[in-house]
Design goal:
- The chain is α/β, with parallel strands linked by helices.
- It has 2 domains: 143 residues, Rossmann fold (3-Layer(aba) Sandwich); 123 residues, Rossmann fold, CATH 3.40.50.
- 26% of the residues lie in helices and 26% in strands.
- Strands 9-8-12-13-14-15 form a 6-stranded parallel beta sheet, sandwiched between helices.
- Helix 2 links the parallel strand 4 and strand 5.
- The relative contact order is 0.13.
- It binds ribose-5-phosphate.
- The site of ribose-5-phosphate (R5P) has 14 residues, from strand 12 and helix 5.
């Protein structure tokens, strides 16, 4: 049985259809004091697959409640699917006094699950923070699905070296093209500086590939460079379209026409589903 978090209902439904499993009749409520409540209904799943992205603090709480309710309902096995794992980017102490937030949330999630599956976490090593077996699946190939068949001399570009493997995956799924990456220096939480490579982009269609679009700074700076260098069409793709704060405005101001994201986060640009990739692990 599939137990969706409130922010992962579309993906959970796709996954249920893919696996031929029932969707639990979950309900979500918020109490007057602001606390959340996730109920799974009167069900008795043998295996409970909790599917919940944790992009907000409330989503983390909902996930813990769904796991707990599944155990209360007698589930023999609980599998936790984190399509998007929140706090995964704080995976070390960057400055004295900081927590390793991804380890803290992984420990909490581990308390009531037998297995964890996460999709394209920022660093795969985050899986080591979970107590039960945890695996990271790579769903980036689905980002190639909506691309036009007739890209001109396509270049699949990572905005920094950390995303080059994603760009290679999307390029391979598309079937033709070259890959390259820019250098990125992060100046603050919402400011980055992009140093372009010497790849010739003039007149070429460029597909920029990243794991997350958060504030949109990385993508909008990359696009400014590509526009300066007279790239033809620019397609912005990412696995996790977080689109926080004014990201949509930043991308629009940069002249982006097409953003393609997956349904690890339910946003207007979540054009492709990771359901088949996740289902293959279940
Ligand atoms: C960081 O290295 C990630 O891969 C993304 O590039 C980053 O999280 C995007 O953040 P933003 O959209 O805020 O620039």
């Amino acid at each position: 049985m599939i137990l969706p978090g409130s922010g992962s209902q579309a993906l959970a439904a796709e996954l249920a259809a893919e696996l031929g499993e029932e969707l639990a009749p979950v309900e979500f409520e918020r109490f007057p004091d602001g606390e959340v409540m996730a109920r799974i209904g009167d069900v008795s799943p043998e295996r409970a697959v909790v599917v919940a992205s944790t992009a907000t603090s409330d989503a983390h709480l909902e996930l813990l409640q769904l796991q707990d309710a599944a155990r209360e309902a007698g589930a023999d096995e609980i599998v936790t699917v984190l399509p998007y794992m929140g706090y995964a980017r704080q995976d070390k102490v960057f400055n004295p006094g900081e927590p390793v937030s991804s380890r803290a949330v992984a420990r909490a999630i581990s308390a009531n699950t037998d297995r964890v599956i996460t999709v394209n976490p920022h660093e795969e090593a985050v899986c080591e923070f979970f107590d039960p077996a945890a695996e990271a699946v790579d769903a980036a190939a689905v980002l190639a699905e909506p691309l036009p068949e007739t890209l001109t001399e396509p270049l699949f570009l990572a905005p920094d070296d950390g995303a080059i493997e994603l760009a290679e995956t999307v390029c391979a799924a598309y079937g033709e093209g070259e890959t390259d990456y820019f250098e990125k220096k992060r100046l603050s939480g919402s400011e980055v500086e992009i140093s372009p490579s010497d790849a010739n982009v003039t007149g070429r269609d460029v597909v920029v590939v990243d794991d997350i679009i958060a504030t949109g700074s990385t993508m909008s700076e990359s696009i400014a460079v590509l526009n300066d260098r007279d790239a033809a069409r620019v397609f912005v793709t990412c696995v996790h379209p977080l689109l926080a704060q004014n990201a949509v405005t930043k991308l629009a101001r940069a002249g982006v026409e097409t953003v393609i994201g997956t349904d690890t986060l339910e946003r207007p640009v979540s054009e492709v589903s990771v359901a088949k990739v996740v289902a293959a692990q279940l």
